[in-house]
Amino acid sequence: MTDATISRAQEWWARGAHFSWSPGSEAAPVRVFHVELGDPAAPALALVHGFPTCSIDWFEVAERLSTRYRVCLLDFPGFGFSDKPRAWGYSLQRDAGLLDHYLARIVGAESAVVVAHDRGDSVALVHAAAGVTGRSEVAIDHLVLSNGNMFLPLSNLTDAQRLMLHNPEILSQLTPELFAAGLGAVAFTPPRGPDHPEVQALAATFAHCDGIAVLHDTIQYLVEPSIDEESWLRSLAATALPTTLVWGLNDTIAPIRVANHVWHKHLMFKPGRNAFYLIPGANHYPQSDRPDAFVQTVLHTLDSPAEVSPGALDAAFDAPVLVDRSRTELPDAAQLIAQRAPSSG
Fold this sequence. Notes:
Blueprint lengths: L2 H13 L1 E5 L8 E8 L6 E5 L10 H7 L4 E5 L17 H16 L3 E7 L1 H14 L6 E8 L12 H8 L9 H11 L10 H11 L7 H4 L4 H15 L5 E6 L7 H12 L7 E5 L6 H4 L1 H13 L7 E2 L8 E5 L7 H8 L5
Parallel strand pairs: 3-4, 3-5, 5-6, 6-7, 7-8
Antiparallel strand pairs: 1-2, 2-4, 8-10, 9-10
């Protein structure tokens, strides 16, 4: 490892601590790694990581957001610097319960903005659905979903994901370094090489508690959305919870067609204040590829008035773009033309 790599992984470790949690008598307690940044009296903002990484995904944006929010992050069991027992029963449902416990009991928040990515989108959707039925302690003030396969039929699961899901013996040939290098090559723009500090820091988190050994267990989460993803999205669409999609445009794992489908079918006519943004030049990890643009987009959706028009957020050629805002109805073509016809004089 280079000194830069060691400093990134060790710095993240040094910022955090652990708490013990169990989903109930059916599973052993695990130690969960967490990090909080910013003023403890500020509004809470949770950054929720995806698969197969951890809270270090947010390394480039957490500090930036902490100037206004109490930024709260955890590594779900099986990931990052948390415990990774084999055959523990990893699931989105358990992680949604853990997220609620963490924010309510460890952070002490009654409500929070939730910014999620990848697998974390599904965790956040499960948590939001629990809130509808009164099964969560913490209310979501605003839900931001980014680059995740929330609708699997339109995703591009990689060969590596399929092998981990169905052929666990392949894991015996995998090392943390090889796994991190593979991610660096396909999920970032520009691609990260094996010596990149970000890739080597990921390798350090994969190596913690032999994370490679539980990949077959943790990737089983894909079975849950294959059964329940439509019900989670319908549940969200029926609420007035402000919801924003933020998508890195270059993503081929969770391609833009996923975001388009979720927006048009579930969010465009949803009650509340909802928005859809694109970040040019960003791949599957927009928070890493273009951290300033990601933070700009999150703050824009949280701060801007409801009537702000679609368009680029600034004059830069690669500025984030507000694509659309929700509306109560779609006018037909004749109405639209009549509304825009110049007055005769």
